Amino acid sequence: MMVNLEWYRSFKAIYKTGTLTGAAENLFISQPGVSLHLSSLESYVGYKLFERTGRKMIPTEKGKVLYNFIVEPLTKLEDAEKHFQKSTEKHTPTISVGMCFETFQITLEQYISTLPFNVIIRFGEYPEMLDQLDKGILDLIITPQKGNSPNVEHEAFSSETIVLVGGTETDGQTFDSLVTKNDLAGMEAWLKQQKWYGTAGDMEHLLRFWQLNFGKRADFRPNYIVPNLNSIVRCLSGGKGLAIIPDFLCKKEVEEEKVKVIWEGFSKLTNTLYFGCRKNTQYASEIHIIKNLFKEVMVSI
């Protein structure tokens, strides 16, 4: 295990400001992020570096010794970074953005080369991305889930409806007549006779849609497990089979009559999509550019 340089930065900032909040503001990251860096460093060195007295962080004797060891080389490294930035014509910031893979492919992928700054795209589960945003690992996330961190603000910008879709060769007339009769048992039986597509480890859309419309948990697994939701749309195009996915991911294929919406459910299952970013961020202008790009793309989809 190696020491992360950011642990030392956070340690130095806490030492100089005397508080976790002051260190977080100094470093433009969240307070939980600073706290995580400190606990990781304390775990690594094997002893406490600060005594937590009220709101003040008082360095221990071991903490003072460590500070004296690292402050000069760390300051030199930070000076070197500043000198390097000044020696370039223009410092280009790097923004880390988190979202699901399918959303990236449909929205940002085709425009990413036009952005006037560096971008790192990260994929993952929404709770993980919310945690990484809070800790300063991510600068912006696109998510249907809101966190409860006081350091993060959410802005609603679009919505998605979860729908049952099928390939154009799928004969949905029998199902339509069952829906008209409100024959839940018949609808369930027909659906379970079809071939289903799903993605590895992600049954959320199917489970929620099934629970909302049939009042029970779906008791079957998809026949074909493919890498992601966009793969499902390609597999269904012009063929047979069913899947439950967000409508915006297949709007183009529906318009081209490669895929058709079989059913929206008795009650529509709709998710609000949010931008999530930290309240104190040094990348406000860059985040604003990405937000506007997303809004334009989602309106056109």
From TrEMBL:
Residue ranges annotated for the HTH lysR-type domain, each copy included: 3-60
InterPro entries noted in UniProt: LysR_HTH_N, LysR_subst-bd, WH-like_DNA-bd_sf, WH_DNA-bd_sf
Keywords: DNA-binding, Transcription, Transcription regulation
Pfam families attached to this UniProt entry: HTH_1, LysR_substrate
Residue runs in coiled coils: none
The family this protein is said to belong to: Belongs to the LysR transcriptional regulatory family.
Protein name: LysR family transcriptional regulator
Organism: Pedobacter vanadiisoli
